[in-house]
Amino acid sequence: MFKAIYLTQGEDKRTLAQVRDLDEAQLPEVGQGAVDIDVGYSTINFKDGLAITGKSPVVRKFPMVPGIDLAGTVTRSAHTLWQVGDKVILNGWGVGETHWGGLAQKARLHGDWLVRLPAAFTAADAMAIGTAGYTAMLCLMAIERHGVQAGTGEVLVTGASGGVGSVAIALLAAQGYRVVASTGKLDQADYLKALGAAEVMDRAALSAPGKPLQKERWAAVIDSVGSHTLANACASTRYGGVVAACGLAQGMDFPTTVAPFILRGVTLAGIDSVMAPRAVREQAWQRLAAQLPAATLAGICRMVGLEEALPVAPEILAGSVRGRIVVDVNN
């Protein structure tokens, strides 16, 4: 038996979330290449908040164990890449949406979905980074591919006090970029500057409708907010700059024009962490191990147990969570 957050749906289509004891026989099959894992740690991401609260149809079938991230140890493997005792990480691949996820003490996953835990990290470290930090690295890699190096100009990070934003600031600052952090929590300015932000600005300057072209400022942008914030970021990006878009905290809409793209040559780079190929994932995690300042993780995460994870879900949707929430599934 093992404990898990277990989601069911009532006749009224409302999602019921509770911590339950489940039998290993209930773990869903994945076909050839299955790997069983003793989970050490998971996380609560924005998508997990949506799944647990039922605020958005993230879960495609019920019952479901949510959790798009996990780190743990292989206990059984039918996959050539993995052996019993290997330390592994899982991010995305539809886990927690179409297949049981990481907010549980045990998981059964396809071996192709896993990445080896870098030696520099513990399982708890890896989940302090999680999908949010891995996505932040994908954004940095996209910025670099488009030729924006440290010293090129300012880099804007929106949703700065969230998981993606916190790790993005630390990564960019460590590489020598001048980072401007946009946040609705100006009381977190000291936190953001400690991560490496050179300047903190009120998100209100970006979150309302704006002109299709604005004064050029940003050499690059990492945006996890979407909607008007993303539109204004594009409108104020410098000629030849790049905007890495990876989230929709403000909304899925994109109320802008083609002007920044055809008049300034701005590139809008979409960042997908869910289905990214193995080679890209491995590169991202290797770079995180090498380039994320060691002191960053202790300052950006809060540890909770499985039961405590349930009330965190609406908090993260409300934008009241700073940094990362790590879930000790065995507590």
Written description of the protein model:
This protein has two domains: 2-117 and 295-328, Medium-chain alcohol dehydrogenases, catalytic domain (Quinone Oxidoreductase, Chain A, domain 1, Alpha-Beta Complex), CATH 3.90.180.10; 131-270, Rossmann fold (3-Layer(aba) Sandwich). The longest helix is centred in the middle third of the chain and has 23 residues, at 123-145. The strands form three sheets. Strands 3, 4, 5, 6, 7, 14 and 15 form a seven-stranded mixed beta sheet that branches. The protein is globular. The chain is of the alpha/beta class. It is built from ten helices and 15 strands. The two termini are 15 Å apart. It has helices spanning 46-53, 123-145, 163-174, 189-195, 204-207, 227-235, 259-263, 278-291, 296-300, 306-317; strands at residues 2-9, 15-22, 34-44, 69-77, 87-91, 106-110, 114-116, 154-157, 178-183, 199-202, 218-223, 237-245, 267-270, 301-305, 324-328. A hairpin with a 5-residue loop joins β1 and β2.
